[in-house]
Amino acid sequence: MKILYSAIDQAVPGTKGGSVHVTAVAEGLAALGHEVTALVTPGNGAPAKSGVRWLPMAPPFGSTHLRLARSWAIAGVARDLQPAAIIERYHNFGGEALRLARRLGAVGVLEVNAPVIDHPGSAKALLDRALLVQPMRRWREHLCRAADVIVTPNPSILPTDTPASKVRVLEWGADTDRFRPGVSGKPPFARPDVTTVAVFAGAFRSWHGAIHLVEAIKLLRARGRTDIGAVFVGDGPELGAVRAAAAGIESVLIIGALPHERMPAVFAGADIGVAPFDLAAHAPLALGFYWSPLKVFEYMASGLPVVAPAVARLPALVESGREGVLYPLPPGSDGGVHAQSLARALETLSDPAIRRGYGDAARERALRDYSWSAHCRALDEAIRSARCEC
Fold this sequence. Notes:
390 residues; alpha/beta; six-stranded parallel β-sheet
């Protein structure tokens, strides 16, 4: 089957979650025998060799708000390709590829990883209402209606009138061949002189809660627990604050961003994977925990027990007391409560035997539920089913 995949706001190759997602889905569908052409922003270097035909096509001036300006160019690619399915990553100002599906008799697939509906107090919603006819809301709802299949980790972020029959609830995943216990290769850091190393990997944004891990390490050290340290990998707007908070703590290492292919070695040098999400720090999360946490799945695939707050969908993704420790975080908890709860969870996993047991169970769960190959098989099935119905 010929598949056109429009993800022009994602850089490939790239280190961010969206880049990893696009690469994994395109390569996973190609591995199933499909002829995949992917439109992406050119990243740093060339994509790894695979069965995917990567075509460079960034939004004008690098602005996602101008994606629709690429409609004519994408239409030309689609006419030449004559795809059986067109996949587009959802964006408020998107639709540059999805709208072609019906015209070409192709299955239209919309990947939704961010809210289509507006959260309470949304400035965008206020602006939309000020325009009287609410053009942004109408356009987003039009895209959902135009799609034959909508793929999302959380249907609560879709318009309420979206037919359940077109929705496929799919989590993101991990490359369980690359992310596994005991991978070869030296970790790209000198392990702190501690017996337990927690790792945080990902975007340094306020709602990712990296600062809470630093504060938890401080609390542990104040109680004499100098045997637990942390390694931070990634980049983002909160990195400066995390560096400042960690200044002078020898058991905390901050590495910065690394190519995604080096992350298996990072996790091999750690003992615990930490995802201290802070939902109160990001207003759209009032709609629900709508993203699929890539870091959690890669921790689990690597055989690391997961430490995260017991909020929203996380207890469904990680079984506390078996695959990791989910710590309680009552509504309205401030940063101090978050750090204290996180510190107690880390202490629970300071026993190597407990860590091994939880890590083995996490690996089993990742193989069963959170592999990219499983994600792509389910996506393939959804596309084939929609083709039969068309």
